[in-house]
Amino acid sequence: MNRAFSRKKDKTWMHTPEALSKHYIPYNAKFLGSTEVEQPKGTEVVRDAVRKLKFARHIKKSEGQKIPKVELQISIYGVKILEPKTKEVQHNCQLHRISFCADDKTDKRIFTFICKDSESNKHLCYVFDSEKCAEEITLTIGQAFDLAYRKFLESGGKDVETRKQIAGMQKRIQDLETENMELKNKVQDLENRLRITHVSTSPASSVTVKSPSTDIFDMVPFSPISQQSPTPTRNGTQLPPVPSRSAEIKRDLFGAEPFDPFNCGAGDFPPDIQSKLDEMQEGFKMGLTLEGTVFCLDPLDSRC
Fold first, then answer.
1. pLDDT tens, 124-158?
2. Which residues contact 273 (CB under 8 A, 6 or more apart)?
3. Is residue 4 pLDDT above 60, yes or no?
């Protein structure tokens, strides 16, 4: 679909934009777990994942294990899954990585969403059991996704190409600075060789060594220029050139450190910024699909 967000039925959002933008909406639920799926979207995909995790849940209950309780914090920055008491973050699912979200039309407690893992890049299906508010939670995730996408566009997501051009121009400037420095060093080396050749080929009677002017203490006065323009020694050899400060600190053509539109003052353009922007753009472009479907297909699934 061309739209970043799609849903089968037109439903009213549950919360104000400020509640999801400046704060977060908390929900309590039981976490049945997560499992890898092959596709980022699809009713059959989540249906199989729910059946698989429900079956594992019944086995754990028969062994006396309790289903862990979690707290969901939903905002435009993602869906956090936390331990209710310690508030330790167990999973942090960014919205542009969530591609599919569904709730059970018959069992109001079950809902699920598919999220692309940030490390393995695998699609994981997360399944939860809530207290008759599964539909509200899926709508809240949908609203947060919609607001996050709008914020991404307003805050510069539409300028991704411009940011790419800035990065390319900055890289070109750094390459030119390096090339310019190499040329300067070559010119300096040629000048030094010419001086040495001229001194060695001149008649001995015509060779005069000009002594630098001295102060009242018979010392050569200090000059910043003398560091960059070394004078020949009495034996005719040339002192090695003093390295320029620009070789130590990367600066642009105007003598300032390169501009970074994402982190002002940084000397280098972060190489991973563009990949993150491209990833977000791709995720939002794929969109989030909300669906209401039926997960309880047999008596085993209907038992809680």
1. 999 999 987 899 999 999 999 999 988 888 876 55
2. 163, 262
3. no
The predicted pLDDT at position 168 comes to 75
State yes or no: pLDDT of 301 exceeds 70: no
The residue whose two tokens read 């009677």 is 205
Whether pTM > 0.70 for this model: the answer is: no
Residue 162 per-residue DSSP state: H
Residues 6+ away with beta carbon under 8 Å from 274: 160, 163, 164, 167
Distance of CA 289 to the CA centre of its chain: 24
- Distance in angstroms (rounded) separating the CA atoms of residues 58 and 42: 25
Give, as one character, the DSSP assignment of residue 117. -
| pLDDT tens digit sequence for 190-225 | 888 888 887 776 665 455 555 556 656 566 665 555
Q: Name the E strands within the chain.
A: 5-7, 25-37, 69-75, 78-82, 89-93, 98-104, 110-116, 123-130, 288-293
Are 132 and 7 in contact by the 8 Å Cβ rule? The answer is no
Residues in contact with 157: Cβ distance below 8 Å, sequence separation at least 6, in sequence order: 277, 280, 281, 284
d(CA 226, CA 185) in angstroms, rounded, equals: 17
Pairing between β-strand 110-116 and β-strand 98-104 as defined by DSSP bridges = antiparallel
Exposed / middle / buried, residue 201 (Cβ in 10 Å: 0-12, 13-18, 19+): exposed
**Cα 194 to Cα 32, 183, 188, 190, 239, distances in angstroms:** 80, 17, 10, 6, 14
> 264 Cβ partners below 8 Å, 6+ apart?
none
Tell me what pLDDT residue 264 has: 41
**27 confidence band (pLDDT: 50, 70, 90):** very high
CA distance 103 to 27: 15
Closest CA to 135 of 166, 101, 169, 159: 101
CA atoms within a 13 Å half-sphere pointing along the CA-CB vector of 202: 13
